Amino acid sequence: MSPRPRTRIQRKNMQAILDAALEVFSQHGFRGATLDQIAEQAGLSKPNLLYYFASKEAIHVTLLTGLMDTWLDPLRELDPAGDPVEEILGYIRRKLEMSRDFPRESRLFANEVLQGAPRMQAAIVEQLKPLVDQKAGTIRDWIAAGRIAALDPHHLIFTIWATTQHYADFDIQVRLVLGQDDPIASAEAHLTTFFRRALTPGG
């Protein structure tokens, strides 16, 4: 028998819990967060929260599972038939936009990985790794055809992650050092120049 569809109120409460948990987890990490903090942030009682999620871990896994799919979308868009440099620069722009629009989600994932990814190892191996390997193969083909400079494909992807997600994970530091409320535009200009030079054969 199929489960009964959730009511509007149930869907609203579940979303309130997930929104609250994202805020709490991104600030305190999994270990520092408590169900009491999440319930208070969501405006619900702890027993009401436990009606929807059996544990703090269940909430955390639900958030991370949804985040993984969203996080992979920009890499999925890398088109083997496109211009290699422009495809990679487009990926960089999409990652910067995610850092601007989803900083809490980025910090949530970063905290999970820093703790050894105890709740996400399977997803990393089963979802992230095959996609990264596939796109690294595309980059390797572009290199073999002489269309971009010879760079290690996996480490190129890691470098893109490091330089784009920095603006989410270290948002306050970036803003204070630059004295800018929105550093993404200048970051995009810099990274576009930097990677275009690095990717251009003989550049």
From TrEMBL:
- What ranges are recorded for DNA binding? 34-53
* Signal sequence coordinates: none
Q: Fetch the PANTHER family from UniProt.
A: HTH-TYPE TRANSCRIPTIONAL REGULATOR RUTR (PTHR30055)
Q: Per UniProt, what is one Pfam family of this protein?
A: TetR_N
HTH tetR-type domain segment(s): 11-71
Q: What organism is this sequence from?
A: Halodurantibacterium flavum
Q: Which InterPro entries match?
A: Homeodomain-like_sf, HTH-type_TetR-like_transc_reg, HTH_TetR, Tet_transcr_reg_TetR-rel_C_sf, Tscrpt_reg_YcdC_C
Residue ranges of the TM segments:
none
UniProt protein name = TetR family transcriptional regulator C-terminal domain-containing protein
